[in-house]
Write a structure and sequence with these properties.
Layout: H1 13-33, H2 39-51, E1 53-55, H3 56-63, H4 67-79, E2 83-88, E3 91-99, H5 101-110, H6 113-121, H7 125-148
Antiparallel strand pairs: 1-3, 2-3
Length: about 150
């Protein structure tokens, strides 16, 4: 028999989020293996497919990653010849990240992925939109709370 006088694992929102995140990431893994990408690399490319090019700072902000995490990701994507990094001529401190032809071509192969994952989630379009919006609000709220600590 378990003790019921403390927090219960299955009642924790944090555990539900953790389990859902792991399940979705695991679903993506074989799909991304076919593209030769990891999930974090896919996220970088999603941001670049949307905007063509970004500074490292803007990319990190978009993905909510610090420079210590984004730099190795970009280095690996550069080795795969999917992105290129260039120092801006007008500001040597700023590095611009752009898709290569190969990186841009990969976009067509990735188009079906969100639909496949959405189908696996068992939610209709409106439910997916609502879930995404709720998760964004949760992230903003938690980040704002952390900043006050």
């Amino acid at each position: 028999m378990g003790r019921q006088d403390g927090p219960v694992l299955d009642d924790q929102v944090c555990f539900a989020l953790y389990a859902a995140s792991r399940a979705v990431t695991a679903l993506y893994r074989p799909l991304l293996d076919d593209l030769g990408l990891t999930y974090p690399q896919y996220l970088v490319l999603l941001a670049l497919w949307e905007r063509d090019e970004l500074t490292v700072t803007d990319l990190g902000r978009s993905l909510q990653l610090d420079s210590g995490t984004i730099s190795p990701l970009l280095k690996r994507l550069e080795k795969l010849e999917l992105v290129r990094r260039e120092r801006r001529s007008d500001d040597e401190r700023s590095v611009r990240v752009a898709l290569t032809e190969r990186g841009d071509a990969l976009r067509a192969k990735a188009v079906p992925l969100p639909g496949l994952v959405g189908d696996a989630m068992g939610l209709d379009g409106a439910e997916l939109d609502e879930l995404r919006d709720t998760l964004r609000e949760l992230t903003e709220s938690v980040n704002a709370y952390r900043e006050r600590l």
